[in-house]
Amino acid sequence: DLGNIIRKEGFTVRNLGFSGYSVGHYRDAYKKFIVDRKISHKLVIINLCLCNDISESRSHFMHFNRGLNWKEYLGQAPRIKGVDILKFSWALTAAINGAYEIRERYLSSSRGKNNFITLSLAKGEIIVPYPRKNYTISINSPAWEIMEKYLKDISKYAGKEGAKVILAAYPSLMGIYAPWFSDNNRQTEIHNQNIKKITDISKRLGFIFVDYSPLFQKAVFSKNIFNRHDDYHPNDEGVQVMWKTLNPIVQKLTAWLRAR
Questions:
Q1: Is the overall model pTM greater than 0.70, yes or no?
Q2: Which helix (H) or strand (E) holds 248?
Q3: At what angle do helices 143-161 and 23-30 cross, to 10 degrees?
Q4: Residue (of 148, 137, 157) closest to 28 by Cα position
Q5: For residue 257, with 0-12 CB atoms within 10 Å meaning exposed, 13-18 middle and 19 or more buried, which class applies?
């Protein structure tokens, strides 16, 4: 829990890190649980996952634009024409995630050449999904514009509170393992294009930009920092790498934070 690590630095932290799967959900959770409740705060850290959160922002926009909604975000199932699909959302979540997990286990066991690739690292050989299945979203996708709109809303809310915003880019598997792919130049180019796009957005919105990629690439070579090699979710070691990236920024802001 990144929040717990920052709490040990003497700060009060409210972790909304699992309030949704898109930047639209980031904004909605921030507004509902912090802004609308008038909770005073000085710093907002946005962990933007390049794996799917940008594309999901477009899905979020289309979902709301059609008059649909999420009740308490992940608290209940989606509603269609005012009727809950399931009374308890976790049944739906388990059904969907269960099917996905079975599929992933099957693919992992088959390890077909079209699905996976073997990489040789200091910690040994690992098998990860083939890079073409892990490209981040197209640089020309309209999802970028939608995402920036949501980030702009967050900027507006934070600005009214006088809070600073850190936008931290969490890389996809392609971005993490790019240096070891056979076509690493192409993989790195795609990753860098996305990082530049996010950097430019951060500058326009006055955010402090942080890129987790360099330390992730360094750590993954010799350490197990994810729950699985074919998955990008960090374990405790991975969260420590995130903090190692964020810590210098937070330390620079410490005097300002404590003075307010």
A1: yes
A2: helix 236-259
A3: 20
A4: 157
A5: middle
Contact 176, 50 (CB under 8 A): no
Rounded-to-integer distance, Cα 88 and Cα 76, Å: 6
**Distance (Å, whole) CA 230 – CA 65:** 34
Question: Residue 194 class from Cβ within 10 Å (0-12 exposed, 13-18 middle, 19+ buried)?
Answer: buried
Instruction: Write the single-letter amino acid at 100.
Output: Y
pLDDT in tens, 1-57: 889 999 998 889 998 876 557 898 889 889 999 999 999 999 999 999 888 888 878
Measure Cα distances from 33 to 16, 43, 48, 204, 205 in Å.
Answer: 8, 15, 19, 26, 22
Residue type, 92: L
Ordered alpha helix ranges (H), 66-183: 89-110, 143-161, 173-177
Q: Where are the beta strands (DSSP E) in the chain?
A: 43-49, 79-80, 83-84, 116-121, 124-129, 164-170, 208-211
- Beta strand 164-170 with 43-49 is parallel
Q: What is the pLDDT of residues 228-247, one digit of tens each?
A: 777 788 899 999 999 999 99
